[in-house]
């Protein structure tokens, strides 16, 4: 009988101990649920990145390089204008080494087109930033047209003036 009382005495727990155990269990369950939620959320976003990464990897693997034209473009402006001569050095941001090879191969045609394009500009407009930006866009369009004509695709992304002198 003493054994029965001792066993039943151990089975009874104080209400404080029972509350502490319940609170601890709820906290552990909440923490486990939170960790699971964040891990699952992280996995789904990584999965999306991997799916889109396949498309972007092809674009990322294409190396962006600079192509500097071998000589500056020297232009004589028409008589009567305040500016008589212009000397412009150009660099191009291109995608892939094969684009540089196409540019080198077709540099005489590109140089001719740029000479004609720059010579047709109003020298007064080239003194402003907007005029230079418009010229850069026109040059980009012209170079891209030559690449499309000669190689079937244009991979020039941007044109930079590394030197722009007008006298």
Q: What do you see in this structure?
A:
- The chain has five helices and four strands, in the order H-H-E-E-E-H-H-H-E.
- With 167 residues, it is α+β, with helices and mostly antiparallel strands.
- Strands 1, 2, 3 and 4 form a four-stranded antiparallel sheet that branches.
- Strand 2 and strand 3 form a beta hairpin.
- Helix 4 packs antiparallel against helix 5.
- The chain is elongated, with a radius of gyration of 36 Å.
- The N and C termini lie far apart (117 Å).
- About 7% of the residues have low confidence.
Helix count?
Answer: 5
Name the average pLDDT: 81
Give me the secondary-structure category: alpha+beta
- Main sheet overview: 4 strands, antiparallel
Strand content: 15-25%
Oligomer: single chain
Please give the alpha-carbon distance between the first and last residues.
117 Å
* Proportion in helices: 55-70%
Number of strands: 4
Name the overall outline.
Answer: elongated
H/E element sequence: HHEEEHHHE
Radius of gyration: 36 Å
Low-confidence stretches: 43-54
